[in-house]
Design a protein that fits this description.
Elements: E1 2-5, H1 15-22, H2 28-36, E2 40-42, E3 45-46, E4 58-61, E5 80-83, E6 87-92, H3 109-116, E7 137-143, H4 146-157, E8 162-170, E9 177-180, E10 183-185, E11 193-195, E12 203-212, E13 215-222, H5 229-236, H6 259-267, E14 273-281, E15 288-292, H7 297-304
Parallel strand pairs: 7-14
Antiparallel strand pairs: 1-4, 2-3, 2-4, 5-6, 6-7, 8-13, 8-14, 9-12, 10-11, 12-13, 14-15
Helix pairs in contact: 1-2
């Protein structure tokens, strides 16, 4: 059972709209189905989707499988780092979409999960509780039971899941820092995110891992998990991630960079971002568990061309 308190600033809005914003791990259609089936209650009583919020109410949500997934299982290799009856941790490769959407109905992690374990179809989004962008590599946790799904969603909402990334950024970063900037849809390009007034709270911590001529390898910790958060925040601070064609703008490569390195940076086919560490409390045993995975070969090859300072 999830409990959601309605912020006062979201008063006088339809309940389904508010819950869709407060529970991004569920689709609005899924939330509407739960409302319609009586799985969303206020003071123990079912409510309707058009209920106008007052602010400060506390709703209870019981996530259930109202509508099994229609996505098809596919034999997609998954690099499984850990698996038991409740959770699975995978090392995601580049060029792999997490779940089906417009233009990506097949060939996704969800399709691979359904092939690996048919029971995933009974969980919301086949057990996906967080995501990595298509070209970001590294660790993801996936729920295999409704108990695990609820626990992981709660931990993510409470910001107790620890996620650490390695990002190769353009520019000479002097020292670590914390970035706080609310993130929402870009006011002009709706396919992008941006730091905007009225966006969702977003906090990113980073420190310098290695320094190169014109570039810096950063170790980044997420306190929140907004869409494209690291990419948006680093670009906002003028340290865009190498290869990020969406947020880097025109690459700024110093004259001191060698011809080999310049070509490697310009030709790198994706954002140089890797989810390297993951820590969480196991949903069943309450044990604190952690995983770590090294950067993929393409990021090491890229850094080998850069001159360390």
């Amino acid at each position: 059972m999830l409990t959601i308190e309605i912020p006062f600033e979201m008063r006088n809005k339809r309940l389904d709209q508010v819950l869709a914003k407060l529970c991004p791990e569920y689709s609005r259609s899924q939330l509407q189905r739960w409302i319609k089936s009586g799985n969303v209650t206020l003071n123990g009583k079912p409510v309707v989707a058009r209920y106008k919020t007052l602010g400060a109410e506390i709703f209870a949500i019981e996530p259930v499988d109202n509508e099994p997934l229609e996505d098809l299982p596919e034999d997609i290799p998954l690099d499984i780092m850990y698996e038991d009856e409740h959770i699975m941790v995978i090392n995601k490769t580049a060029n792999l979409v997490v779940h089906p959407g417009a233009g990506n109905r097949t060939g996704t992690i969800v399709n691979g999960l359904l092939h690996h374990n048919a029971e995933q179809k009974h969980l919301p989004r086949a057990g996906i509780v967080h995501r990595l962008d298509k070209d970001t590599t590294g660790l993801m946790v996936i729920a295999k039971s409704m108990k695990a799904h609820k626990s992981l969603v709660d931990q993510l909402q409470e910001r107790s899941v620890k996620r650490e990334y390695l990002a190769l950024a353009q520019g000479n970063v002097i020292s670590g820092d914390t970035i706080e900037g609310n993130i929402g849809r870009h006011p002009v390009d709706r396919k992008k995110m941006a730091v905007v007034d009225g966006g969702k709270t977003a906090i990113t911590h980073y420190r310098v891992e290695r320094r190169f001529v014109g570039h810096t390898l950063l170790r980044v910790n997420l306190e929140t998990g907004r869409t494209h958060q690291i990419r948006v925040h680093l670009s906002w601070k003028h340290y865009p991630i190498v290869g990020d064609t969406t947020y880097q703008g025109r690459p700024r490569i110093p004259k001191e960079v060698t011809v080999e390195a310049r070509e490697a940076v310009q030709q790198f086919p994706r954002q140089a971002l890797h989810a390297t560490k993951l820590s969480l409390v196991h949903p069943d045993t309450a044990e604190l568990m952690s995983w770590a995975v090294d950067m993929p070969a393409d990021m090491y090859a890229l850094m080998d061309t850069l001159e360390e300072v």
